[in-house]
Amino acid sequence: MHDSELRFRGEISTDILNSLVDKHDSKDQEKIKNLIHKQQQTSFQQSTLSLENICWLIASVLCLYYTNIVSVILWDEGINRSLLYAAILFISVNIFIGIYLIIYLSKIKDIPSSKWNEYNPYLIPVATGAFVSGSIIMLISLWPVYGWLTAPILFTIFMGFIVLIINIPI
Fold it and tell me: What pTM value is reported for the model?
């Protein structure tokens, strides 16, 4: 039995794994026992609400509050609106592809994420290109208001968004 076959993400209970130990020879039993022990030690460390993630959330909320970015996007005259709308379009494409992959393919059609490229090989490259394009265009559209602080502000808000998304149970 290979190590890749023994890995698990914590969804399998320890009782089930212990029952598997009895079905293999002593060499495999020792590997399985070591992996169970390692999983039990690291399961607490794999929590998505780590100190780093909490710091990203706090920094993101502070950026949103102190930069007034929502009201700036809505009302400020210095923003290049056509670039802003293009950026919103590109980022929306990215979000819709993500919803399609995560909710429709993974949850409804039961296609694992390792098979997404086989099912539709163009979605991940299109989503990546849309996100990169949207981020660069968003940075350019907000540059007249925030100057060189635009990149750190957008990156901090993006990281807070990612931390928020990974903590939503789907």
Answer: 0.69
